[in-house]
Amino acid sequence: MTTWTTAGLLLATATVVSSFAIGIGPGIGPGFGPGIGPGIGPIGPGLVHHLGHGFPGIIPGPHGIHPLPLPHGLPKHVPHGLPLPLPHGFPFPVPHGFPVPVLHEVHVPVPVPIPVQQEVPVPMPFPHHVPSEPLLHPGNKFVPAGDYHAVSPYLGVLLPHLWRGPVQEACGQSTINTFPPMLATTISEEKKESCEDLEGSGEPLEKKRKVLGSEESQRTETRETDRQAENKRTENVICVEDQPGSAYHEEKEEESIDNNNCNHPGYVITGDGKIVYEHGSLEESFDHVDDPMFWGPYLSERQWGTVREDYSDDHNCWEHITYEDATSHAYVSGEDGLLGVSDRFQLLCASLALWNGKDTILKERLFGLTSVEGNHGEDLKELYYYLDNIPDHSYMRALYKYPQVAFPYHQLRDENKARSFADPEFEIIDTGVFENGYWDISVEYAKTDKLGLVCRIIAVNCGQDAETLHILPQFYFRNTGRVKEPLPNVPRNQQMLMSKADNESINISYHLGHWRLQFLSPDYTKSPTLLFTNNITRPSRDDYSDGVRLFTKDAFHRFIVDDVKEAVNPAQNGTKCGALYVVTVPPGGHACVYWKIESNFASTKINIDHLRKLFIDRKAEADAFYQTVTTGKWSADEANIARQALAGLLWSKQYYCFDVKSWMQDYMKCSQNKGKKIRNSGWHHLNNHDILLMPDKWEFPWYAGWDLAIQAVLYSRFDINFAKQQLLVFLSDRYMHPRGQIPGCEFDLGEANPPLQAWACLQIYQRDGKSDTDFLKRCFNRLLLNYGWWCSLEYEDSRIYGRGFLGMDNISVVNRSGSLPPGWSLVQADCTGWVACLCLWLLKMTVELGRKDSTYFDLMSKFLTHFVDIAVAINKHIDNGGLWHEGDQFLYDVFYTPSGHKPIHLRSIAGLVPLLACTIISLRALPVASAAFSHHIDQHPQHVTRLNDDEVFLSLLPWERVRALLEHVFSEEEFLSPYGIRSLSKVHAAHPLDMEVGNEKFSVKYAPGESDSAAFGGNSNWRGPVWLCMNYLLLGSLDTYHLKGLRTSHPILIHHPSLSPSHPVTLSAAIRDLERRLLAIFLRDAQGSRPLHGSDDRYSKDPKWRHLILFYEYFHAETGRGCGASHQTGWTGLVLELLFRFHRSRPKSVSKHTPPLRDMGGKLSSAS
């Protein structure tokens, strides 16, 4: 212990001196100098009390920089040296089971001699990914936690060992695992006073050490007596490890458990499985979870079939864990469930399970086809709808349609597998199961307060006969164990437990508090059947492992469907629980089930009248919120579209957990994988454990770079702080590659997406009234790294660029992400256009930031010059190193081969991306900036044009070429469809492109709906359909060209045959027409049908279906029918932006429901 004390003192002294003297890098000194300096002092030796008041977020004081609230009852000034429980969410990622780093792994500015201690594994009570909270410096500005290189990311593991010392021993503290709330040993008042006396005596450090040393032998004897008394008190208490089939059963060679002294701080588990709480423990342990966003829709709709759960030798994630496997296989990196919720760390999850008495599988999650089962790749085969949600998630509502006959699993698989790419997909609605009656299952959530949540489940019988339904609301802890050979998947968190309280209540205890879960059904005359098991994998058909009975993840399925009553735990405790209601409902009738979860010390008896009023109130608040979104001009149909679009966006939040380094380590532990090439091996730095916006929580339960940027812009209208957080966390070191690349998606993190983060940062900055320059500066500093990476994609100093599919999967004649013949290279019109856009967006940032700091003007000149260089290069003729084809009046990708160049004569939306690279910049009161622009205005007037004394217009393409491209765009024979701009010109329907690449022949033909090839799995198609994301971005650039015409008093006229066959029309008229076409996809036509729903007349005639809307990934260019993912509010939610544009309206100020995010620390701004 003396060794650690000395090391801690040296480390603290060095840190304090250096942090106060020079800080830790620009912009970090002010935050970390006063924070870490005073913080590590008392933590290291436990005695240097005069250095300050605590580590940020742990010991509050004037220098603390992270205002995470501490457990209730903790004194304002804690005696220095006492080990304190870290609030869950301590701002450093801690890999599960990571060995304790030696002290030299903490990077301090001043080198100090630190003795090395042997590394000791730390049994982590937290999940293997502790959520990393952003840090706040004294100016209360948001900084992503991952940005700080000066502090080891494993400091969270190191801290508990730095805290050990004689003071801790004197206070009766254990020398291991002292920091987690659930493991913090209660300190007696007598021992606390002795520590306070020592700390407050002002005696020299060495004298204090002697005092502690002389008293140590006496204290050791006292502690031994205490332990004997404790053993006697708990000799009749059964610990969770001793429960037959416990989820915490460990392999004997790995950990020896003292079964006679297993005391959980604050509570013990009695012989009958109940939790007995000790006096005063509740109030002192769990107030730090006081967070209005604690509960939310953070649970995925699908965890099986993801890369995060894939440990197969062939990287076939779809087959490693199938839909059927998910019933019994515990996940590693997340959870899923039917219309479920979770706490903000996805430790405690809640969802719904159903059984109609005929299915072969308990309906716990949504079903869909894998990439090889569907004729167009993976595809959801269920019907559910997100109907309501508001930004603080105090009211949420969704609807699931559940057949009353056996679910057609085999029919869906067999029929789709038999179909070709040319055939339509066979959907569940085509099977006829809804003709024979079905259940409308409405799931509503309402918050009682910050920590209280109520759920109402209403099952309506939409059949002709009385039917019986099993309703099982269930709760479960995320399994936070790591994969081991041979994959027993046993969680290690001794603190997680659910146990029966009474016939309708369950006690739940885990890291974030003690909770009371209550169930009630006004339609059910008796108490529900409470079921318990553990969220662990069932290893085999045998229910025993080493003679110990196992109660596993599939116990409820076996209990209900297979009628195996012994599958559930008779001791009525575990890590998964549920309340089973079996109801028989007449035709047109309904059954209702409630559950309520509250912090135990705030728990009140469930009351049906109070619950009904709660939902009435929350629904009224949601109505009021949506009235701030729409205006009186909007029709009822438009308001309904907007409401469901926004609800889908809010439901798309998901806790996403992916630590690539840990995943790779686990992958290599599997014997069949040793020596295999590992996916994403160049991204071992990536450590994600955040609530993120997902494109689609079933089809795409993982982020994609440009999807999230678009979602953030859309989200900024209603919760601008959360939108900022999404962008900043994506630009942090935990995501961005050290080379500056922003991750693509988990299937290939190195696959480039368009650089829309810069565009999104600007959009959000502008919506915030251009007031948050700190946010813009922070984004800009990180985007400089990203800019450097994009510059590396240049082809031979040509200012022409090429890099992969760029989010447009099969847009080209070949797989642009695949390998090319030897000696071949590919340069791309879209990649070059995106780099030009990035230069413009960064240029606009430097102008904005330069208004307060003129040093940014140096970078402004660089981006301006780079943009002009790209403009000159791309406009060269295709035979002269450029991408412009004079004969076709279009921009093409080009192959460079050993024998020369080969243009790809494919008129796709990739060739329209350069149109996006245009903007108007105001140089008012910026004479230095104006001078920098003057040179380029003189040299390149076709790309840089002065509009007036204050404004400059920049365009990648000269106006005559813009006009030529717009003729293609607004021609119904090419890009303009009845429902928006096609992704591939219709000219390729009659004239497919045939091309030979190397020794292979390829062909591309216009396909207005689903893909006609297996490229990129076949579930996405950029060879004809309408994509809202690109249409929305194109509308933005058309606005800029139109604004340019207004500034010069010369409205722009273009050829638009569908509006005027013989005369040109104004660009504004063309923009308006495009908006109408896009909105026509969603709005009811004269027959009451929405084109997106295809030919199914239920959505136009049946009152139970008529109001329901799905938000598809893309749309058939000729019919408007939805294709691909059906809940892609990731960017199809842009229909809401289209409605704002069409009505030229802006939403009112941010609703009072919009919570100021704890992470942001800044003001809650109105989104204009």
Give the amount of beta strand, in percent: 15-25%
Question: Spans of 5+ residues with little confidence (pLDDT < 50)?
Answer: 1-288, 483-494, 1149-1168
The first-level CATH class name of the domain at 650-658 and 677-1051 and 1064-1143 = Mainly Alpha
Structural class: alpha+beta
Count of alpha/pi helices: 26
Largest sheet: 9 strands, antiparallel
Annotated CATH topology of the domain at 650-658 and 677-1051 and 1064-1143: Glycosyltransferase
Tell me what the CATH architecture of the domain at 650-658 and 677-1051 and 1064-1143 is: Alpha/alpha barrel
Shape: globular
Estimate percent helicity: 25-40%
Count of beta strands: 41
Kindly list the characteristics that best describe this protein.
alpha+beta; signal; 1168 residues; six-stranded antiparallel sheet; globular; Beta-galactosidase, Chain A, domain 5; Glycosyltransferase; disordered N terminus
